[in-house]
Amino acid sequence: MGQAARFLEEKSFSTIVLTPTWEFHNAVGIPRSVAIEYPYGRLFGDVGDISGQRKVLEATLEALESAERPGDVSHLPFVWPEAPKDTHWHPPAMSPIIKMYLADIKAARKK
Fold first, then answer.
1. Do residues 99 and 105 touch, judged by C-beta distance below 8 A?
2. Rounded to whole angstroms, what are the CA distances from 77 to 64, 70, 110?
3. Contact 73, 33 (CB under 8 A)
4. Is residue 81 within 8 Å of 49, Cβ to Cβ?
5. How far is CA 107 from CA 40, 98, 110, in A?
6. What's the CA gap between 69 and 57, in Å, rounded?
7. Cβ atoms of residues 56 and 45 within 8 Å
8. Mean pLDDT of 77-99
9. 97 has a pLDDT exceeding 80
10. Is the Cβ–Cβ distance between 78 and 37 less than 8 Å?
11. Which residues, 6 or more positions from 103, have their beta carbon under 8 angstroms from its beta carbon?
12. DSSP state at residue 41
């Protein structure tokens, strides 16, 4: 995501990245970030929550419009309805691509 945002910025396109880990994105040079306290995979909201998703999208676009310079971080006021430890949004079965690379993923985490 960061490389794409930087590339687009170099071509005079303003970008903004919606992220739950804004500190990381800011450290690696994402031009503009919008921080949200939602779990990965649900950054715009829960499945089927059209109204909530629209609010997140509109707030993200407003942050892009009001950002004064690259490096700005806006924090959205939305709160996920349950504690992170209680958020069970992963599918019951592992996806085939993850299953195929699981050993590599575990090895990378040990480094």
1. no
2. 16, 21, 35
3. yes
4. no
5. 22, 13, 5
6. 20
7. yes
8. 76
9. no
10. yes
11. none
12. T
